[in-house]
Amino acid sequence: MTYENVLSNTQNGITTITINRPTKLNALNKATIEELHKAFDTANKDAETKVIVITGNGEKAFVAGADISEFANFDVANGGKLAAKGQALLFDFVENLETPVIAAINGFALGGGLELAMAAHFRIASDTAKMGLPEVSLGVIPGYGGTQRLPQLIGKGRAMEMVMTAGMIDANTAKDYGLVNHVVPQEELLPLAEKIASKIMRNSSVAIGKAIKAINANYKDGVNGFETEIEQFGACFGTADFKEGTTAFLEKRKAEFPGK
Fold first, then answer.
1. Which residues on adjacent β-strands are paired with residue 27?
2. Can you tell me the distance from the alpha carbon of 123 to that of 226, in angstroms, rounded to the nearest whole number?
3. Which of 39, 138, 230, 232 has the most beta carbons within 10 angstroms of its beta carbon?
4. What one-character DSSP code corresponds to residue 139?
């Protein structure tokens, strides 16, 4: 599929989705959000794709934020619709994919950019990356899940400070906070993503999808995460991957998971 603002490439089981608006610092406009949804959906349905990596084009920005020009004149109703549609179409959608998503933060991840990175299952960053939620400096608040995911990842107090000050943190501070897992030089960022992806791909894709669902359940209101874990654990026993994994272990050989 051809996109205007997104590049998608699949090699060796890894689909790399690159936001490609370098002249706009890869800012998220409506068209880009819709294209990202399609790219993630296509990759998730592709049997050859075992891991998805999301990154930005160039060395300056992952995503520098939302395209403010698109909503500067919105009223209350339209503002609410913007957040609701964006969350459903992209941010919640990414978080709940069964295919693992790694955000490779290659530069500025601000506003909607940081919110997109936080929707991924985990994050790695270049040592030049900067992250923040500057929305209150524009008279608005994060609307794509930032007020919810940031406290989950770094704690309430630090999240309150980041949101209230509208300030940025560097990659090493983000690592100290637990916002990103690894920090490496720019040229090592995508190779690290591929290295981690290769480790993930050795395991059962079916079990990983169920683990994602169980872990996410802990952060959903009205959902008992322990019950979800029990349900997903039991479901594993009916899969071909479980049969192969346990058989390979008992036969002292490497498992060849069918992904079913």
1. none
2. 25
3. 39
4. T
pLDDT of 226-258, one tens digit each? Answer: 999 999 999 999 999 999 999 999 999 999 999
**Which residues, in sequence order, are CB contacts of 64 under 8 Å at separation 6+?**
24, 25, 26, 27, 108, 110, 111, 113
Residue type, 250: L
- Position 69 confidence tier, pLDDT thresholds 50, 70, 90: confident
115 is catalytic: yes
Tell me the pLDDT tens digit for each residue of 184-221.
999 999 999 999 999 999 999 999 999 999 999 999 88
Q: Is a pLDDT exceeding 80 seen at residue 53?
A: yes
For residue 4 the two structure tokens come to 């205007």
Query: Using CA atoms in the order 105, 17, 218, 199, what is the torsion angle rounded to 10 degrees?
Result: -80
> Could you read off the pLDDT of 129-153 as tens digits, one per residue?
999 999 999 999 999 999 999 999 9
In angstroms, the CA 48 to CA 66 distance is 31
What's the mean pLDDT when you consider all of the chain? 96
Cα–Cα distance between 38 and 157 in angstroms, integer?
36
Active-site residue, from 4, 70, 95, 135: 135
Give the number of other Cβ atoms within 10 Å of residue 213's Cβ: 16
70: annotated active-site residue: no
Give which of 51, 152, 62 is closest to 101, Cα–Cα: 51
Set 35, 95, 115, 194: catalytic member: 115
Could you tell me where the DSSP H helices lie in the chain? 30-45, 76-86, 92-95, 112-119, 146-154, 156-165, 171-177, 189-200, 205-217, 225-236, 240-250
Of 252, 248, 256, the C-alpha closest to 202 is: 256
End-to-end CA distance of the chain: 26
